[in-house]
Amino acid sequence: VFGKDITLILLLNNLSFDHKTVKVDMSASTILYTRRAVAEILKATTSVELGSKQGKHIRLKIPYSYYGKYLTTDKRIQVTALCEVMHMHGVKLLVEKTIILEDTNIIIKIPRRVAVNKAVTLEISYANPLPEPVNHCVLLVTLMNQQVKIRLAPLAPRQRSKIYFEFTPRRTGPLQLQVDFSCDKFSHIKGFVTISVAPA
């Protein structure tokens, strides 16, 4: 989840009866959806001794403080581990993992019945998922081809807040409501919901 530390485990298994020493070079970079690297955020090297038919775990932690300011709106991190078996010429294995961080941010609550030409109040709840305060918060609400920009108060670390939004639907059928939440530390966290408008 965006804003939390990421914990990964690399599993190494020695499939042979021989003792093995494995050098592991691990790195992590923020990337775009095209897989183009944006910034390297972690680099670590370790050596692992594996006995006959033995398996071992290597834990890797990427704190929010490492990736936060380098993450793009794609919210992707590429982690690679290059494992080299020592004293065996040219035996290398590359393991890759792409992590897409989740937003569990925006919650939109709508009344059970929404009818045409009757005012409706929605509850839009939003949160700061980060371990630090955020400022210059803005909600952009898009509904019926119109956009409303709402400036919000600063949020403390991990704070959740909510606003009430009133509108009157002018036609029956499905209506798409989209909410885009941005602030000085992140941008374009989106939430959307389809509202079914019933006849009056």
Automatic annotation (TrEMBL):
GO molecular function: protein-glutamine gamma-glutamyltransferase activity
SUPFAM superfamilies given in the database record: Transglutaminase, two C-terminal domains
Domain Transglutaminase C-terminal: 2-88, 106-198
GO cellular component: cytoplasm
Pfam family, one: Transglut_C
Residues that span the membrane, as ranges: none
Domain of life where this protein originates: Eukaryota
Classification via InterPro entries: Ig-like_fold, Transglutaminase, Transglutaminase_C, Transglutaminase_C_sf
Keywords: Transferase
Similarity comment: family membership: Belongs to the transglutaminase superfamily. Transglutaminase family.
Record-given protein name: TGM3 glutamyltransferase
Gene designation per UniProt: Tgm3_1
